[in-house]
Design goal:
Elements (H helix, E strand, L loop, with lengths): L13 E6 L5 E6 L3 E5 L7 E6 L4 E6 L5 E6 L5 E6 L4 E8 L5 E4 L3 E6 L2 E6 L5 E6 L10 E2 L7 E5 L5 E7 L4 E9 L3 E6 L5 E6 L4 E6 L5 E6 L8 E6 L5 E6 L3 E6 L14 H11 L6 H8 L5 E4 L7 E8 L2 E8 L3 E6 L6 E2 L1 E7 L6 E3 L20 H8 L14 E2 L4 E4 L5 H4 L17
Parallel strand pairs: 24-28
Antiparallel strand pairs: 1-2, 2-3, 3-4, 5-6, 6-7, 7-8, 8-32, 9-10, 10-11, 11-12, 13-14, 14-15, 15-16, 17-18, 18-19, 19-20, 21-22, 22-23, 23-24, 25-26, 26-27, 27-29, 29-30, 31-32
Length: 441
């Protein structure tokens, strides 16, 4: 979530906030630098790293590795790829226009400009392909699948209607175009396996889920009928069974991805059950717009935010073996909700933390006693954040020889001052926390 287009709040330093690919950590960019927090527990935000020497408008971490990609407000056309544990810059690239978004998986790094996209090989940061002359995309809307076998990139195919272009970043070819909505796209997100993509338009009332790569619509949900709703985030759960949606209203919706034909048939026990069946049976005789509305799914669960009219992002994650809804808001707080994956209903607010990492924390009084088990493991086991902070406390790296500048014309100009640091990351080494796997080409 990039807040540079939302106007400057003199009372807030917050510029950017985002979850990493598996929701194990949170990255926060501010007017003073950036911070990384662990999301392994709900009782506090455990700070992993902090840098405080420039204004950061984009910071993206690659899973739980030490690789981060950062862009500053001072140099919005320059991308830096850094090894935060060592405090070193691996390489940097400059582009013809301001960088609006950066996406990473274990194979590719994507840089999104307003009318072009650059696909880098994350192993050596070479530009593999450039998608030019894309429709104007002023907010940098795009999505990258985190799955190596389905490493798809999605971006708007039009700024007039909701077309989704799907591009294969491994074989470097266009895959399909999905006519998702009648209005321009506002949000989209891949499932963790890269086999589904969820989309929403600027109208904000309907959310659709399509199969990838064939583009068949498999789910359709109605968020509501309220006008002028701006959906800012869509996010799947890791298992692909749930989808959450946040907007500029105070309500966050959670939908369950299940086909009605897969549901067990329940016996009708009352007048409302009979009426519901009658309405469904008569849907075939109604106008198509009414019929489609009756077939649209409704939210399984909802969560209530304290404020409306603000931009926010949401995620579904397992924390301490329990399903949680996480919402990071423009108001400077991270909200953590408990979620009932079976019954749904209203989600319970468990904790809210300040995104600046200060210890001030407000806990929902009703949830002060809950049945999630101990929040801290016995025996003084070191936390993940402390492990990361202590892992690379050895002697500082010696100054490497500078690399030559690779001039790519009007594309990107790169500088790799640390030629071996991408290899030093050892993406498939168990010493990375947690261990990561990388499929070699």
């Amino acid at each position: 979530m990039n807040l540079t287009s939302e106007g400057s709040d003199p009372n807030s330093d917050l510029i950017f906030v985002n979850f990493n690919q598996d929701c194990s950590s949170l990255a926060v960019g501010t007017k003073k630098g950036y911070k990384l927090f662990s999301l392994s527990a709900i009782e506090k935000l455990d700070k992993i790293y902090e840098q405080d020497n420039e204004d950061i408008c984009i910071v993206e971490r690659l899973f739980s590795s030490s690789l981060v990609a950062v862009v500053s407000l001072t140099s919005p056309r320059k991308l830096k790829v850094c090894h935060f544990k060592k405090g070193t810059e691996i390489c940097n690239y400059s582009y013809s226009n301001s960088i609006l978004a950066v996406k990473l998986n274990r194979l590719r790094l994507i840089v999104c400009l307003e009318e072009s996209l650059y696909i880098h090989n994350i192993r050596d940061m070479k530009v593999l392909h450039t998608i030019r002359d894309t429709p104007p995309n002023p907010v940098g809307l795009c999505a990258l699948s985190i799955n190596n076998d389905n490493s798809y990139l999605a971006y708007p195919g039009s700024n007039q209607i909701g077309e989704v272009q799907i591009f294969d970043t491994v074989n470097l070819r266009a895959v399909t175009m999905i006519p998702a909505h009648d209005n321009p796209l506002a949000a989209m997100s891949f499932s963790s396996h890269g086999e589904m993509i969820a989309t929403a338009s600027e109208k904000g009332t309907v959310i659709r889920v399509f199969k990838v790569p064939d583009g068949c619509k498999i789910f359709e949900f109605r968020r509501g009928v309220k006008r002028c709703v701006q959906i800012s985030c869509l996010a799947f759960s890791t298992d692909g069974l749930y989808l959450c949606s946040s907007s500029n209203t105070e309500t966050v919706h959670i939908f369950k991805l299940e086909n009605t034909k897969d549901k067990p048939q329940e016996e009708s026990h009352g007048w409302m059950d009979y009426l519901s069946q009658a309405v469904k049976s008569s849907a075939t005789y109604l106008p198509s717009q009414v019929s489609d509305m009756l077939k649209q799914g409704r939210a399984l669960a909802t969560a209530r935010l304290p404020n409306s009219g603000l931009k926010n992002i949401c995620a579904l994650s397992m924390i301490q073996k329990m399903p949680r809804l996480l919402v990071a808001s423009q108001d400077g707080f991270l909200y953590i909700y408990n979620m009932d994956p079976v019954e749904g209903g209203e989600c319970t607010l468990l904790k809210q933390h300040k995104l600046d990492g200060s210890l001030e924390c407000i806990q929902n009084e009703e949830s002060s006693v809950h049945h999630d088990g101990p929040l801290v493991q016995p025996g003084g086991v070191a936390s993940y954040a402390n492990t990361v902070r202590q892992h690379d406390d050895g002697s500082p790296d010696s100054s490497p020889d500078p690399m030559h500048h690779g001039n790519l014309g009007d594309r990107a100009t790169g500088n790799n001052p640390l030629t071996n640091d991408l290899e030093r990351l050892r993406l498939d080494d168990d010493n990375e926390f947690p261990p990561m796997t990388h499929k070699n080409d």
